[in-house]
Every structure is written in C-alpha cells, then in structure tokens.
Amino acid sequence: MSNDLQEINTNSAFTPFRGMGGLTADSVHVFAPATVANVVCGFDVLGFAVNEPGDEVVMRVKDTPGITISKITGDDGRLPLDPAKNTVSVSVQHYLNSIGRADIGLDIELHKKMPIGSGLGSSSASTVAGLYAIKTLMGDDRDPINLLPFAMKGEEMACGHGHADNVAPALLGGFVLIRSYEPLDVVRLPHPKDLWCAVVFPDVDVPTREARQIIRNKINMKDAVTQWGNIAGLVSGLFMQDIDLIGRSMKDVLVEPVRSMLIPDFYKMREIAMSNGAVSFGISGSGPSVFAFTRDEQTAKDITQKLQQHLTGLKIGSNTYVSTINDAGPRVIG
Amino acid sequence: MSNDLQEINTNSAFTPFRGMGGLTADSVHVFAPATVANVVCGFDVLGFAVNEPGDEVVMRVKDTPGITISKITGDDGRLPLDPAKNTVSVSVQHYLNSIGRADIGLDIELHKKMPIGSGLGSSSASTVAGLYAIKTLMGDDRDPINLLPFAMKGEEMACGHGHADNVAPALLGGFVLIRSYEPLDVVRLPHPKDLWCAVVFPDVDVPTREARQIIRNKINMKDAVTQWGNIAGLVSGLFMQDIDLIGRSMKDVLVEPVRSMLIPDFYKMREIAMSNGAVSFGISGSGPSVFAFTRDEQTAKDITQKLQQHLTGLKIGSNTYVSTINDAGPRVIG
C-alpha cells in the first residue's frame, strides 16, 4: 500500500503543508465518527460516516518530544497504552515525521465511545480523531484528504491491511468511494439528504481478521458481474437521489452469504428490517453490526427497536444508533 | 432471461400499450445506431450508442398476415432471409404477438450499414431498427424501453444469450447501465457532452460466441474488487462530468487481458491512442473493434487515422468512425 501523498487523485487537489511551523493551541478535543464500510455491494471500496457513535481524542502539547498516551477510557482495558502499539499515536507520529516536526511532544487521551470489534470502524474513528487533533494543533488547513495515508498506516496496524473504506469516510465525512488503492484514488459521492441509517451492534465477537479470512479468494465471474451491476446501480442511485434504485442495488451475492454466518439470526433480522419499511439491510464492515437505510427517522428508530427486541429474545445484548449520513466527518468539540 | 414487461424497473415507468389498434402509415424507414458494450470496466452491464455506423430497416404493411424479408443489403449474403431465422423479424413478431396483432402482415428490407461480427452491436442495431419501425407504424408512443424484452429475444437468437448491453443503448440512446437482468433493471446514465468516441474496426474475424467462451469462469476476488472500484469510478465520472475520472476508471483487469489476444496488436494500438491524446482505450463489446474516448473531434479523427495506418502496415483493412455519444437512439428517416 502506497502512502505517497503525491499519488492521491481526488476531487480535492493535493496541497503540500505550509503551516506556520508553530502550534496554534496547547490542547484540543476532537470527535471522529463511526463508519459503515462495504455498504452491501461495495466490498472494500465504499463507506459512509454516521453521526453516532464515534470516538474522542484529547491531545495536549508537552514540553518534551515524543508521544505518550496517558489515558484510554471505554475500552475495557483492551487497547495498548504503549504509543508504539496504539494506532492513534502511530498515525500521529507518521504525520509529524512527514512535516518534519518529530520534535513536538504530545500527550493523548483516547475516549472510546463505541464498541471495539463492532464492524463500525472503531479503530478508524480513533485514528482519525487523533490525526484531526494534530492537524488542528498544527494549523494545517489543507483538505483532510491529506491525512488519509497516515490514517491508512493506522488501519494496517489495527487490521493487518491498509484499507481505506472506514478511514476515508471517517476523515472526509459523507459517502466515499475508494476507486483504486494503487494509486490511491478517492471519490466523494453525494447522497439523498433524507436517507436515514439504523445501526444495530449485536454484542458478539467477530474479529476483523477472521471475518476477512472466510471470504473466498476465487469467485464466479457471473457473481462478480451481478455485484458490479449493483455497485454501479448504487452509485447511480446516490447521484440521482433515487432511494428506490439505491435499495434495489444493495444486494451482495459474494461476501454476505459467507459473513452472515457469523452474525446471529442475520436473515431473520433482515426480514424484520425489510418488513418494517427498510430500503435496504446489510452487514456493516465485517460485522457483527448490521445496518438498514430508511426514508425517515421514525422508521429507523422502529427498526432498531424491533431488532434489539429480537436479539434480547436470543439473550444477546445490543447497542443501537440512528442517524443521517454524517457529512462533516471529524470535528473539534473543545 | 425474463421477458416479462412487468419486471422492468427503470427510471421510465412501464406503460401498457394503448395504441389506436390501427396502423398509422403504410411504410416507414428507420435508422438504429451501433453501440459500444462493456465500456472497458463494465463487462455485460454498460453500453453506449454512437452516431455512426448503424443499420436501416424499411418496413411496409402487407395485405396478408405474416412477416417476409424481401431484401437484405450490405451483409455479403451472411444473414438469413427466412423470417423464422432472422433476428429482426423474430423480435418484431414477438412484439406483434404481445399486443395481440399477429394478424398484421409486414415486409422488411434490412440495409446493413455496418460490419457484421465487429463488436459494434450489429445484430442489435438491426433488431432495434425493426422494433422501432413497427412501434412507429403502430402509433405506440410509449417509452422505447418497453421494446427491450423483444430486442433481447433477438439477441438471444443472434448471440446465444439474451444480453442487453447492446440493445438497451441502441434502443434508448446515450449511456446505459443494465443494473440487473433478473429482474431486468435498466438505468440511463448522463455523460459529458464533449466526450468524443473514436472507433476502429480491424477487419479480422472474432465471433461473439467464441469471444465469450475464452472468458474465465473463476476469477480472483482481488481482481473483482479492482473492477467494481473502476465501474463505480466510471459511473461517478459520468455523473460528475469528470473526464479525468472517467479515464482513470476505464481499466479492465479481467476480460481485456484475455480478449485482447484476439485483436491484432491491441497493446500497440492502445499505446498509439493514449500517446495521441485519448482519455481511454479499450475493446468494443467482444471485439475486434476498439474505441477511444477523447475530449474533442480532431483528436478522435487523428487517433482513428493513426490506428488505421498502423493496421494497414499489418496488411489489415479497417473501418473508422468518429462521433459523440448518440443520445437519440433509433430515428425515423423516411
């Protein structure tokens, strides 16, 4: 995976960093959003950001060089405080090195406000919050796309592969297409404003690495044609603001049939969502979270409630989230 | 392949035929355009129409029921005059049966104005010309999309498979996505107005059936992901009028590496086209025709001339065509 900034083709031009060379503040508090990757028919190339959940980073400038992590909350002790092993500090260090400011000292507090291993881009949200924090402190007013290669370094460490379908939407907000990885080519897609997203995280364990390993390496051309007809339909529907077309196109004949086996009662959950007004239903990232698109907030709320009830009946706890697509991406909250 | 009209989802609503029940004229002369299917990264799902070449049908009402074909020109005797074996008469008969007017008698003249077996949708152009002719005679003012199932019957007969990536753009004009075959779901895509198309048909034989047979049935998931990133990029570029993105996205890692073997000096032709200002270059349909997108007419003309010269050097004759994308589809010319 290349992290050469020069290779990013985007609808935002790449801009070299011309910061003031100094820090603009002593500390900053940043939120970055959860993301839904794959989006049913866009395995490894599509993702979008939601308004909640998300992670928060508090970053403070220190007198001595180097990055420390003084506190992590909400992770049940699962994430490393060692800055050489934490995706947030590792990506921030890559950023500082790239702008020739490895002399800067930082302390990081990471507040996990979303479940780990949920398929909602948990590591991406943390990494993007950290990168947006240092960008803000450095007075780096370039398009956030310039942070993408550093965020991908974090993903490589967290998941064993430098994919961008969570970090790119977390960083840019909205709906994002990773047209190509080599060279990296990212396209921001529009979406209907009235598209709501209902997310349910069933509290079962589906590690990303294993979820990737069960995907078949060899597939049928016929199925691939079905899949790329659908992704072309989904992208058309996004541009045309055609929610019916979006719904018709969100079918996955390749990945979902395999990954759904790791998710409790996946097809029953789909039936519940679709019979209660969902436009589409599928796995978020590698699961176990699932999501539905709806045309309004109330339908999204009803669906999350019914899915949660169903999971409770299976003695499985769950978290639910309802939001529109988050066009802002990360933001400073203090 | 379903030919149930009820199953067509399109951005034009399906409309039942409510014709006057009578014929509006004694005869009609129709042109229907050649088409470029696949469009590099959209194997089996994308196609667009060009302004030239194309085929013509003259249709005359007879006193006695049944369809006859009195004349075919430009086919070097390769096409059957037997109405039970000709794709034009077969699709027109399907249409007449569907509207309960099998009593109508017709005579057809087919004028092939384009090479057969060129990869330019030769049979589709003829079929669509025939269907548009009977539609016109019947005073059937519904959206031409309603003719698609009959045109696909013709394709099934001509090519052994009822694909729509030539007939749909020939019928509708413009750039067309076949999102799904079962059920049939066709999406009209926009395109930049200043996109020019240079087409070169090298006069060598590449039968469609054999060109399909050499395509691999099993492919790598990794290559499929590359392909659907590209088709999503191409569709985005069409909506965004972003010719650079269109060009970057038009790469085919799956079909072209195999089919290019059947085309004389394919990679040299690509090099000539790209070094002379083409936005993209690829195989039209199953070949042997190739096409390039350009930003203006002169570049398209220069490229066809240079490719023709190169083929002449290989002692291969060729036909060349330069046009914008044809948004009109079939038209009455007399």
Folded structure, characterized:
The structure is a homodimer of 334-residue chains. The first copy, chain A, is an alpha+beta fold and 334 residues long. Chain A folds into 2 domains: 5-189, 2-Layer Sandwich (Ribosomal Protein S5, domain 2); 196-324, 2-Layer Sandwich (Alpha-Beta Plaits). In chain A, 33% of the residues lie in helices and 25% in strands. Chain A contains 10 helices and 13 strands. Chain A has helices spanning 87-98, 122-137, 148-159, 167-172, 208-213, 221-240, 243-249, 256-259, 266-275, 297-313, and strands at residues 9-10, 27-37, 46-62, 66-73, 105-111, 175-180, 185-189, 196-202, 218-220, 280-283, 290-294, 318-324, 331-332. In chain A, strands 1, 2, 3, 4, 5, 6, 7 and 13 form an 8-stranded mixed sheet that branches. The radius of gyration of chain A is 19 Å and the shape is globular. At the A-B interface, strand 6, strand 7, strand 9, helix 6 and helix 7 of A face strand 6, strand 7, strand 9, helix 6 and helix 7 of B.
